[in-house]
Amino acid sequence: MTAPQTVLTGCLMPEATTGCLAPIDKDGLEKLIAAGKADPKVIKTLKCKTVAEGRFRHANYIRNLAPYIVDEPPGLLGDDTAPNPSEASLAALGSCLAVGLHANAVHRGWTVRKLELQLEGDLNITAVWGTGDVSEKPVGFTDVRVRVEMECDGVPKEEVDALIAHVTRWSPVANTFTRPVNLEVALA
Hints:
The protein is of the alpha+beta class. 30% of the residues lie in helices and 20% in strands. It contains 4 helices and 5 strands; from the N terminus they run αβββαββαα. Strand 1 and strand 2 (57-61) form a beta hairpin. It is globular.
């Protein structure tokens, strides 16, 4: 009789260097790293087409993927069929940080047993998209908190903390949250 196995985030048989997460192509990762170092000034333009479907539900078309739906909750007059735009931005931040943490851990040869991020953000919505109280106030998130649960075999907490700081510094979405971005919105 074999000893019972503990299920960690849904897996019984861990993969080398990824633990319970689906494995990353380490050779592919190393090629991406080399390409980034070979030409560090490359800029990639990402595109999204947003189409209003009615009420406050929108279909967002990215690459050749199925539409990514964004809606509002009933309290903001939506149908509650999908995350609202601010929630979607938190999801983008969480996913960007998680990708960076996972890739950097694999690059370092760490075995990741668990990787979960809890995000919350505070914002004042009384302006109601510029139709409500438009008195002077910050618009958008004023505070965002991210709590990372990351377990790696044999890696001290201090090293995981350093990795989190490193990944936050280099996250494209985290940088979009923390620095000014040139934004142009105009009639087509």
